[in-house]
Amino acid sequence: MPLYRLFIIIVGVCVILGLMIWLVTSISWLYSQVAWMANPILANLLLVMLISLLGLLIYTFVYYFRLFQFGGNGSKKRRHNLRIPLDKSGAAETSLKAIRQQVNQIQDEVARQALISRSQDIEANLSQGSIQVVIFGTGSAGKTSVVNGLMGEMVGRVNAPMGTTINGETYRLKLPGLNREILIIDTPGIGEVGEGGATRSEMARTLATEADLLLFVVDNDLRQSEWYPLRNLAEMGKRSLLIFNKTDLYTEADKNQILNQLKQRVGGFISSEDVIAIAANPQLINLENGDTFKPEPDLMPLIHKIATILRAEGEELIADNILLQSQRLGEEARRLIDNQRLRQAEKIVDRYQWIGAGAIAVTPLPVVDLLATAAVNAQMVVEIGKIYGCELNMDRGRELALSLAKTLGSLGIVKGAIQLVATALHFHIGTIVVGKAIQGITAAYLTRIAGRSFIEYFRQNQDWGDGGITEVVQRQFQLNRRDEFVRGFIQDAIARVIEPLNLHQSSAESDDELELELDKPSDIAPYLYQDSSQNDWENPRHPPDNW
């Protein structure tokens, strides 16, 4: 025993003895005082009551100490084990109900029917499904040999053909003491190269994520390509066993060394008791007389482990898996709905950007600063909100539009948009373009930035995020100034704004048109008079006289 522990015990015993001496002295003094001042019978009664109370306190302390120290964890664990399947089954049912409501919002008929079918399969498995034991690992680890060995030992027959498993093969068996049927599923090998290797690996991972119990088979120490998928599956909540196969190929010392290495590598997510060494298909042994001998498969440790887990945790494993599958299905439904809403919202933004561009090009604004206000259309905000289930009135739409328009102006994005559009038009056309065309196309560009910013706002449940509206708008501006997007945007602008505007100008008076030579930066200076560091909404300024 360490010296400091001995010292603590001695000090504790001394304190307890001192308290006991003090307690006995105090009771004796109290008894003598009561006996001298009152009736001795009353003193005896008081003494009995004090001793009884003291005994009750000691008993209560010892009882709850033992309950906490020895019985608390076991009782808590038993209650936990009993309640987990019920709670998780209830959570899965709740999740499935939410999925059914989400599915009704999906417009893609094929995707909707696929989700409905998968949710029905999960519901069926919740009530009377089988326990799925999935054999997972690389192609050379001997997974099919493990399947053959399990089937042969447990039911007396071998069904799995030897060789490469192309698709998942399923075998059925019954285990005494279990009401549910057991499905042994042999998966394709992971990490295969060549034609179809990636497809088979993906199929294997899909089957593994649907497993109630996962048997990860290796034939040596874990490689990184094996460790990562095993860790990911374990962290998903998959009950996993690590199976060290082909131990007959190693000496006893080498086998123990590899087994210890495996336990160390997976110690963070798999218990050492769940790392099991087997020989599913031992190699032939050449005898001295020239004959060969086939050893029996060494599978009993694995069989006993599987039987123990399924009998003790079978219903809990199913509840875990069903809850996981329902959650993944819900995530997929939300992803489909989000993509659907995104496509619808982008169509609205696209429509309003060219409507605004045409209107401003025909009737340009007297000051460029008002481009931001004109670009952010309140009706567009209301329609985007409706797609995301947010019913906004026009007053709220105008409030949001004004807030974002102020942000566009204060960040200098209006000036940046004019420069970007003017430069791009000069590069694509190389001729003189009227100022009203630049205004119209800039308005379309600003409308797109505003619309995409509002899409992010509604996707995040009407929240601009930690960085606020400024960060969202800046991010959208950076995303929409990339060369590839700008080229496509300008091509659309030429077809939708420049060509109709030229046609309109050819039949109208042109005395009051303002022309800009795009290769002279000074000529677009009137559009750029505002200092981006100032907020023009709070300090309005008038354009120069030469506007």
Structural features, described:
The chain is an alpha/beta fold and 547 residues long. The chain is 63% helix and 7% strand. It is built from 15 helices and ten strands. The strands form three sheets. It has a six-stranded mixed sheet with strand order 2-3-1-4-5-6, sandwiched between helices. The protein is flat and about 115 Å long.
Provide a quick synopsis of the model.
The chain has about 550 residues and is an alpha/beta fold. It has 15 helices and 10 strands.
Please describe the structure with a list of short key phrases separated by commas or semicolons:
10 strands; 547 residues; six-stranded mixed beta sheet; single chain; disordered C terminus; alpha/beta; two-stranded antiparallel ribbon
- Strand percentage: 5-15%
List the uncertain runs.
68-86, 155-163, 509-547
> How is the main sheet built?
6 strands, mixed
Helix content: 55-70%
Mass-distribution shape:
flat
Q: How large is the radius of gyration?
A: 39 Å
Q: Specify the structural class.
A: alpha/beta
